Amino acid sequence: MSDIRKRVGRNGTTYQVRYPSKSSKTGYAYKSFATRKEALAFRDDSAARTIATPLSSEIRTVSQGVQKWLDVCEREGRNGREPVTRYTLSNYEYRAAIINSYAWNKELHELTKPDIIQFRSWLLEHHSRDVANKVLTSFHSMIKELMGRGVLASDMAEGVTVTASSRYDEPVVIPTEHEIQQLLAAADRLANSPNLTIQKAWTKYRPMLYLAVDSGMRPQEYLVLGKSSIKATGVEVQRALDGGGTRISVTKTRAGRRFIDLSQDTLEMVRHYAEHHAIANPHDLVFPTSTGQWQSVRNWRSRGFAAVCEEAGLMVTGTEGRKKIKAEIQTL
Questions:
Q1: Which segment of 20-34, 44-58, 148-162, 237-251 scores lowest on mean pLDDT?
Q2: Are residues 63 and 100 in the same domain?
Q3: Phi first, then psi: what are they for 177, rounded to 5°?
Q4: 200 and 281: one domain?
Q5: Percent of the chain whose predicted confidence (pLDDT) is above 90
Q6: For residue range 298-312, what is the model confidence (pLDDT) as tens digits?
Q7: Are 213 and 180 contacting, i.e. CB atoms less than 8 angstroms apart?
Q8: Are residues 242 and 152 in the same domain?
Q9: Which of 165, 189, 223 is the last residue of a domain?
Q10: What is the dihedral of CA 110, 150, 46, 113, to 10 degrees?
Q11: Quick one: CA torsion of 91, 111, 75, 85, rounded to 10 degrees?
Q12: Within this chain, do residues 10 and 84 fall inside the same structural domain, yes or no?
């Protein structure tokens, strides 16, 4: 039997709802509201009473729920998907640590939407908007996973989000077909530069750029393209740089493993570099560094793509604070 009690204290008048709870030693749990209307709504809401009853004896706390979610991500994969990569899992573990560092004063099944909103406020106070958005997204993912497994009865985090982007963010500039042609022409000029240092660099960067344009591959994919992946009419995409760029891994999703047909010119250019210029390396790389390792995405963007944008006259001039800056169009 639930009841409402009026409380008057230093912080003013509140209305306390006492309701049955199997998780409490006394058989009851308590929740306070600023108005009697809110208290009545909570008391009369059968869904709220259901939430107060645990559906699992093994997962009672937020920490236990988070650990179950991490285990599923690592061992099974969520919603029938493949398990996440080691790098992705480390990101999830970082977010899980943030979730667990919050002072949860209720068991998982007792949480309500106002509790999640309060958690969001705490996230925004102690972390950047981007981090808060990612942590809250992972928290919501955990809730949905546990609902699907019958651990939770409802989604108390539904509709509680953080908008990570800002209306002041600069829009992404995607190159047009004409600009693509300008980039390729600039790459041709750089590869034939009288400056031998520039010419040497663009002997490698030129086929990389042509491959990016022709295939639509991500830098994380074409930077670790294997020689064995070059076929008669195109290339097989089977691997990619892991998010941190520290290791070669499989592509992020099963759909990422694919075969891409290339134009004959691009295919011959890539194959010629692989056969005549790429040094022997333990990773079967088409575009290795001078030490036989893979190139970093950052170096390619700063030394290669930014240079070809400059050559093609496609650098965008703007300001950052009081400084004048130049930025290339969206990286291929």
A1: 44-58
A2: yes
A3: -60, -40
A4: yes
A5: 56
A6: 999 999 999 999 999
A7: yes
A8: no
A9: 165
A10: 40
A11: -20
A12: no
For residues 130 and 226, state if they share a domain.
Answer: no
- Mean pLDDT for the stretch of residues 37-45: 78
**Cα(250)–Cα(91) distance, integer angstroms:** 17
Burial class (CB in 10 A: 0-12, 13-18, 19+), 204: buried
How many other CB atoms are there within 10 angstroms of residue 56's CB atom?
A: 16
The answer as to whether 171 is a domain residue is: no
The domain that holds 214 is classified in CATH as 1.10.443.10
Q: For residues 60 and 27, state if they share a domain.
A: no
- What band does 315 get if pLDDT is binned at 50, 70 and 90? confident
Q: In whole angstroms, give the CA distance from residue 143 to residue 156.
A: 8
185 and 211 share a domain?
yes
Is pLDDT at 247 greater than 80 in this prediction?
A: yes
Provide the residue range defining the domain that includes 23: 1-53
How far apart CA 242 and CA 163 sit, in angstroms, is 26
Residue 180 burial by Cβ neighbours in a 10 Å radius (0-12, 13-18, 19+): middle
Q: What is the pTM of this model?
A: 0.55
Position 172 in a domain: no
Residue that has been written with the tokens 């909103």 in this structure: 117
C-alpha dist (Å) from residue 15 to 30, 36, 156: 10, 6, 22
Q: What is the CATH number of the domain that holds 154?
A: 1.10.150.130
- Are residues 293 and 223 both part of a single domain? yes
Q: What CA–CA distance (Å, rounded) separates 143 from 159?
A: 13
Q: How far is CA 23 from CA 52, 64, 109, 275, in A?
A: 8, 15, 10, 68
pLDDT tens for 5-18 read 898 888 789 988 88
329 vs 271: CA distance, rounded Å: 28
Residue 227 within a domain: yes
Residue 219 Cα distances to 3, 20, 88, 194, 216, angstroms: 61, 57, 18, 28, 9
